Amino acid sequence: MRIAVLGGTGKEGSGLALRWAHAGHEVIIGSRDAEKARRVAEELNLALGAGRIRGADNAGAARDAEIVVLTVPYAAHKDTLANVKDAVQGKVLVDVTVPINPDDFTRVAVPPGGSASKEAQAILGQGVKVVTAFQNISATHLKKLDAVIDCDVLVCGDDDAAKRIVMQLVADAGMKAWDAGPLDNAVVVEGLTPILLGINKRHKVKGAGIRITGA
Amino acid sequence: MRIAVLGGTGKEGSGLALRWAHAGHEVIIGSRDAEKARRVAEELNLALGAGRIRGADNAGAARDAEIVVLTVPYAAHKDTLANVKDAVQGKVLVDVTVPINPDDFTRVAVPPGGSASKEAQAILGQGVKVVTAFQNISATHLKKLDAVIDCDVLVCGDDDAAKRIVMQLVADAGMKAWDAGPLDNAVVVEGLTPILLGINKRHKVKGAGIRITGA
Questions:
Q1: CB A215 to CB B199 under 8 A?
Q2: Overall pTM surpassing 0.80 (yes/no)
Q3: For B188, which residue in chain A has the nearest alpha carbon?
Q4: How far is residue A132's CA from residue A153's CA, in Å, rounded to a whole number?
Q5: Neighbour tally for A70: CB within 10 Å
Q6: Each residue's pLDDT tens digit, A40-93
Q7: Are B35 and B158 in contact (CB under 8 A)?
């Protein structure tokens, strides 16, 4: 598939971009700064030893892609969504955003709209299939292509076909996906990240994660 | 310790009661129906081969205990808390309640008060140390004392000393506890249960759970 990774110059986004390109997908890194996006794309192509990644500004990346993945910080969430709203109509948007509490990153704060991804759906309208995934994946090991990511991916969304596409992309990135129900459930998956960051802090580690057991 | 398990005639409560009694704690099963509580206590004593469990009405159980564990359905949450409010002042109350969405038990519904346990704290007042735990533990295997429970316990609360007591009780019941931060984080732990119930339903299993990795 042709995948745009908006905010793809960041650690999480560029790690996912590298893994998808490695799996044979065509990837467009999106950034507010198109020049920076192109530079990061070239670095990733060098790491990959192939030319499947290019850079563009966020709206251009979203326009050219079949599926759009959003990996910006929560502070840039609304503006980025408004910026790409037209370009993503009719597409699947994968929201990776975690609403981090500015006062304490280990304390859950439920956003006014119910969750970051419910806010995304409200901004984009019903013409876009919002699916959430990857919020609990630490960026730490994403760029090591042979590293086993010891964390499952909980996938939420209201459109089953869109969810199946995203679950395949999770597998293509070397992770295990679980259907975690409708978009209403994303508040929980987003909120797991502050809990994992608290465990990181207390245990002096970088990549605490979760695994689903018994199924 | 002397532990009251309110709603302890149910599957989750009686399973925890049995495990704590097995670990040497004195347990009081609480129920709206004291007679039923005494009957279940006797059954558990028979299973245990010891007489460390007795039954009482909820308020009596709470009054006689050092620590009070609440395992009632969400529909009985507010009434039970109001009923034991005086009896639990100055104590630790462990809230196991999951707010189940009556329209769809696999869909997360955040309660008006932020979470069941925040509602408990509001009802009981600041004289009670509310800690949450065990919401994600399926009752299925609790009563088999030699069964390994393949699910970790995320413990939330605003009082560190109270949280440490509860984390020890988790270990005494044969499970692994993690400090999952302040009571504000309980909305996530409570909401994990509908997600796990959805996984149970889709995968035709009974006891999907979670494990924390990487820490």
A1: yes
A2: yes
A3: A188
A4: 9
A5: 29
A6: 999 999 999 999 999 999 999 999 999 999 999 999 999 999 999 999 999 999
A7: no
